[in-house]
Amino acid sequence: MYEMLIVDDERYAAEGICNCHDWASLGIGHVHTAFSAEEARTLLTERAIAILICDIEMPDEDGLSLVRWVKDHCPHTESLFLTCHSEFDYAKQAFQLKSFDYLLKPVDSEELANVVAQMIKAIQGRAEKARSAELVQQYESLWSKQQPKLAERFWQDLLARRILTFDDFLERALKDARLALSPDAHVLPILIHVEEWLRPFAGRDLEMMRYAVQKAAEELLLAGAGQQGQVVTDRGGQLFVMVYEQRPFVHESAAVAEQWEATCRSFVTSCKELFYCRINCYVGYFAPLHDMPGLCDGLKELQHTHVGKTSPVLVYSAEMDAAHGEKEKNSFVQQTIQFIKDNVEEDISRDDVAAHVGLNPAYLSRLFKKETGVNLIDYLIETKMNRAKQLLDTTDMTVSMIAQQVGYSNFSHFTRMFRKRFEANPQEYRKQ
């Protein structure tokens, strides 16, 4: 319920307005009266007055002066002027003070009630806007706190190959993570590895020092270098700085490598002085998002094979990455083939194979097709059918038993797959 204040030096006029309408029906819980500007100021200070109805002509201080004071001290109060004179100067000043309306005395009670109802709607609308603005501010605050977590999860999933990078899958993943990156953006990854702590840290102290190194990477390698990016820990616990290319991508490998080598050397020195640790940095190169998993794996392999410790900063070249990529692809394909052969008599699917080698099923299918020329599902079926043929040749097992032996609970489906592979159903093949 709202509170309303009527200010008029004529007592009967103020009381007449109090009694001219059922104000409670409009949501007004209490109607106050004041017979001077000074008395009105006291009430306005003590009470949360939503609506002020004020006579302009008063002997000690006019209503215009009072409303000027109200605008400074009670900005949420809506004002309505009453006057006996239809003078243009009064109307002009009333509108300059942004009063809600200007009515002539004697005021019609129905007209006054309609104006007050409009004033209440205006107050409610303003309150609703304020609530909306407050909610937006709250959501923005929550977003700002949540966004780094979403971004880190995106990078963890991308580096673990859990995000598809073809069609619009990557674009949707970026949108879900609220990252201001386009799917064709280029990123430079830097692997940061703590080789040695120069003072004994354990428990909480060690966690705090690791956190300090991560924050220092944000400040020195990103903010201090005027770069946008994200510092993330992958699912294996490795710390990466992902530097976003802000300008249209131009391949300047030599210049970029020199710049980041110098920046990382300064970072290494700071970590030694501030956090008592010896850091090694493995600097990649700007590459498309879909190349990040392989490139970051290459950086991790470089870190594992960096035994000479001749330099705290090593730059990983595209040529090294290409060699690693071929090795990595061959390794995944060989693991896939071996897993299928080892589990040919199990009810395994493409997802089971992908889970075993640690790749996204769709990504593994594309990789397998590219490297072998055969669809992964077709290879899985062919391996099972070859095993079924072997069992038909070498055992007295029934066809239904052989179907179950190679992971087919649906006998009709097994028969169709066998016929497709050998142009004869299992019974016909055995007779032949």
Automatic annotation (TrEMBL):
Residues 334-432 form the HTH araC/xylS-type domain. Pfam families: HTH_18, Response_reg. It comes from the Bacteria. The modification 4-aspartylphosphate is found at residue 55. GO terms for biological process: phosphorelay signal transduction system. Keywords: DNA-binding, Phosphoprotein, Transcription, Transcription regulation. GO terms for molecular function: DNA-binding transcription factor activity; sequence-specific DNA binding. Residues 3-120 form the Response regulatory domain. InterPro entries: CheY-like_superfamily (IPR011006), Homeodomain-like_sf (IPR009057), HTH_AraC (IPR018060), HTH_AraC-typ_CS (IPR018062), Sig_transdc_resp-reg_receiver (IPR001789), Tscrpt_reg_AraC-type_HTH (IPR020449). This is Two-component system response regulator YesN. It comes from Paenibacillus taihuensis.
